[in-house]
Amino acid sequence: MTPTPHHIIILSVDNQPQWIGGIKRVTSTLGHEWQQDGHTVCFMTSCTSSIRPDSVNGIPQHFLPQPQAIYSPENISFLADYIRNGHTTILLNPHVEDRELTKLAMAVRQQVPVKLVSALHFSPTHTYDITRESFFIPYHIHHHPKQWVTDAFLWIRFHLYQGRRIRKREKTWQRTVIEGSDHFVVLSQQFLSHFEGQKDKLAWINNPISFQETERNPSKRNVVVWCGRMDLTGMKRVDRILQIWAKIERLHPDWQLRLLGSGDQQLIGDMIKAQGLQHCKLIGFCDPFPHYEEASIVAMTSTTEGWGMVLVEGQQFGCVPVAFDSYASVRDVIKNERNGLLIRPFNLQEYARKLSLLMSDGKIRERLSHQSMEDVKRFNSQTIAKQWIQLFDRH
Question: Stretch 192-215: mean pLDDT, rounded?
Fold first, then answer.
C-alpha cells in the first residue's frame, strides 16, 4: 500500500532572500527530495525585503502578509486559511530560536488540524555557550583598554547569576515549544540528554549534505578555507582563525588561508593588516564550492554550532575538517584522526600546532581526505529525507 503523500509547509524567516543561508539550504535540499517522492512542498516566508523570489531551489515560496509583526492576528489567520484550503498535513518550523515565528506556528496548530514539527538547528545551549565565550576578546581589549574593565564586570556577573538565568530561559522556552508541537527535532542524538520529560515527542535527525555526490579534485592546492559569518563576539569567531594563522603562517609560506562569508570586510581587513598576515586572502561572501574544490583543509573556529554545515560540505570535496570539540554534534561529523581533527576548546596553541602538522604532512592529509569523502556519504540527502517522512508518519 502506497503511503498518502504529505502536503508540507516549511516556515522561514528570510530578510535577505538574495542569499541562501544554512537553514534554507538544508530545508530546500530536503524539500527537493520530498518532491521527488511525490509530496507537495512550499516555503511560507516572513520577509521584509522587496526581493521576493517565487521559488527557492525549485521549492515554491509564498510570503506572510505582515513581516513587521510575525506573531500577529493577520498572519495567524492567513496561515490557518492557507492550511485549510491546501489540505496541509505538515507544518515544519526549522526556526525554533525565532520566538515570534514559533509562537505563530503554535497558535495556528491550535486552530487547524495540522501536525507541527519544530526543529532546533542550534545546540540546545546555544545562547549560554556564546555568552560564556564573549568576554576578553583580544581584539577588543587591545584596541579599547576600558573594555577590559567592562568585560571583567560582565564576566563576574555572568558567573554569579546571569549564566544560570540564560540556561533557565533557554530550557523554559524549549519546554514550551515541545509542549506546543507534535514533534521536536534536534540535529544529533548527543543533544537528547539535555531535555527532560516528554521523550515521546523528541527525535534526532542529522542534517543532509546539500549537493550531489562529488569527485575529489586530484590537484588539491595548499589552501585552508574558513567559511562563515565573520563575527568577533557571536558564534563563528573569525578572530580565532586569524590568531591561529599568525602563529604558523611563517612556517608555511607556500600555503594560503581564505576567508569566505559575510561580515564587516573593513574590520576584518584591518585585523589582517594589523597582524601582518601575508598569505591570508579575504574573499567575502561568495559561492564556497569552487574554493572547497581547490582547498585541502576546511577550518572551523566556532564557539558552538547545531551541526556545522561547512565541515560536511568541505568533506564532500575531500577537504580535511579541523574544529574545536566544543559542541556535541561535531562528533557525528568528525571522528578524530580518522576523517579530521578535533581540538580542545578553545586552545589556540593546540589548534595551531595540529593544523601546522596537517599542513606539513601530505600523507596524513591524503588519508584523512579519502576517509572524509567516504564517511560523509552517510548524510546522503535521500536517506535523511526518508527519516523525516518516517517522523511525519508517526502518530
Answer: 84
